[in-house]
Design a protein that fits this description.
The longest helix has 13 residues, at about 65-75. It contains 5 helices and 19 strands. It is of the alpha+beta class.
Length: about 290
């Protein structure tokens, strides 16, 4: 039913400023500068190898603009929604409802690139946060060909730029409830469910498409009534040394490179500016 993590949505106040930040963080030129006339929002998209990043901001009157504006007032800038890809939005909505998950009806959507006038069309289903443990989710069926959204182009060399998303991180206060949502209801493949006593955390890895949705839950604190929180993103780079040097030169607050928890990897944490997103850069050890 769900074939990929189609895109990742960040809510931002100043779209131009956030676009400049993520252009430098990713080392990629934006793929799209668009508007949603029916929604009252504007966006910038960066299409990577396995997903695309959407920076979303209110830009007028509309239902989505109101929702994003309310989110920004309550939470500030940061991770806003996970959008899962499907081949049939209407069938996905029916299946989710049969599994007990509330959803909207599938509706047509239209985006227009302000630079070129190009248009992209899709059909999407919104899942209310009240039904998804407070993590906003969208199910999207694209009605335009894949190349309607051009791939982002590296401006600082292929090896130093972010190539793909490695994983997204959702923090959970109720691991079993989150496992049921992502596995039983959404139907994502559970690749790992393991308690790491040394770290005091239970990690669950759900695979979809070519990336991972990681659920992290404390082993010592649990609150069945507490919501989940879409918290962070890990970006994959071909050369961690080249990427680190590029980020330092761009004046990001970035940690030293260290050995990653996953065997065969090295990582660095980008502390600022990330517009409220816990951010990790990960690359091969050699």
């Amino acid at each position: 039913m769900l074939t990929s993590l189609d895109h990742i949505v960040l809510a931002v106040r100043d779209l131009a400023r956030a676009t400049a930040t993520y252009r430098n963080l990713l080392g990629q030129e934006p793929s799209w500068h668009g508007r949603h006339p029916a929604y009252g929002t504007a966006n910038t998209l960066f299409r990577l190898e396995n997903t695309y990043l959407e920076l979303l901001a209110p830009a007028g009157e509309g239902p989505l603009a109101a929702r994003v504006g309310s989110w920004l007032e309550k939470h500030g800038e940061g991770p806003f929604a996970l959008a899962f890809g499907t081949e049939d939005a209407d069938a996905a909505a029916r299946t989710l409802r049969a599994r007990g998950l509330e959803s909207s009806d599938a509706a047509d959507g239209l985006g227009r690139d302000e630079r070129t006038g190009a248009e992209r069309r899709w059909r999407s289903v919104f899942l209310p946060p009240s039904a998804t443990r407070s993590v906003s989710m969208i199910v999207i069926e694209h009605r335009s060909p894949p190349d309607a959204l051009p791939a982002a182009v590296p401006f600082a060399g292929d090896t130093a730029a972010v190539a793909a998303c490695d994983h997204v991180v959702v923090q959970s206060a109720n691991a079993d409830a989150s496992r049921a949502l992502y596995g039983d209801v959404l139907g994502l493949r559970l690749a790992l469910d393991r308690a790491f006593e040394d770290w005091g955390v239970r990690l669950m890895f759900f695979r979809t498409g070519h990336l991972t949705v990681e659920i992290a839950a404390s082993l010592t604190q649990s609150d069945p009534s507490a919501p989940d929180r879409f918290w962070g993103i890990s970006w994959r780079v071909p050369d961690i040394d080249a990427a680190h040097a590029r980020l330092v030169a761009a004046e990001f607050d970035v940690s030293e490179i260290r050995t990653g928890r996953r065997p065969g990897t090295r990582v660095a944490t980008v502390r600022a500016e990330t517009h409220g997103v816990a951010t990790l850069v990960i690359g091969p050890a050699s």
